[in-house]
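Researcher: Can you fold this with magnesium ion in place?
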Amino acid sequence: MSALQIKQLNKHYQLDAIRVPALIDINLDIQPQRFTVLSGPSGSGKTTLLNLIGCIDKPDSGEIIIAGQNTKALSDDALADFRSRHIGFIFQNFNLLPVLNAFENVEYPLILAKMPAAQRKSRVMTLLDAVGLSDKARNRPGQLSGGQRQRVAIARALATEPQWVLADEPTANLDSQTGAAIIELMRQMQRDLQVSFVFSSHDPQVLAAADDAIFIRDGRLISRAQSTAPTTTKTLELAA
Ligand SMILES: Nc1ncnc2c1ncn2[C@@H]1O[C@H](COP(=O)(O)OP(=O)(O)O)[C@@H](O)[C@H]1O
Ligand SMILES: [Mg+2]
């Protein structure tokens, strides 16, 4: 699996007559199969960077190479297809579909990926079991706690076995105990499935769990702290 490479990335927003720089000359390599945290104060550019990495938005200039693909080379349609196959998202507000139950929320990306029904069912049950929610499969988001909703969102993000999982402040709307359990779960899933996680957070609990912490401020990269822990081996195979 290849590193995520970010080269000379720039992005601004236009607010009426005001040009708001959000990311300035970001150069960054992120190693695969690790737990990487983007940290920085509110407004520093974390969400903007994750949205660019995740192909949700496009940069003004610069390049992103993810899962071996230079995203600049893809048309909008090809980008959407690439994203659905290689990148999973976990959001601060969970972003679950309220009319679907936990099972159906996790199943949704697999339907889009045209996986046959029997295979889908087994994959969804394996994932719900892995996040500790097999007994809540029929509950809708409104019938789940915040921590349980985020567990469903984690299962959904992992459903298509993406190489990269991006999470934008995944514990910000959770109390610290629930947040700690969610971090532990994501850490476990990262090890078991050998996916590459990139988070944004200013939660000290998330930073403490990171293999690699990247600090940004005012749209610029300011420092980095990497551990040298070896990558682990894949132990959990999703049912095919
Ligand atoms: N849609 C937008 N329109 C205008 N400015 C924006 C928009 N989104 C973000 N910004 C600005 O871009 C900068 C970076 O924002 P953001 O990436 O959301 O930071 P963070 O996630 O670290 O809080 C901030 O100055 C923010 O106000
Ligand atoms: Mg943000």
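Model: Folded with magnesium ion in place. The chain has a mean pLDDT of 92.
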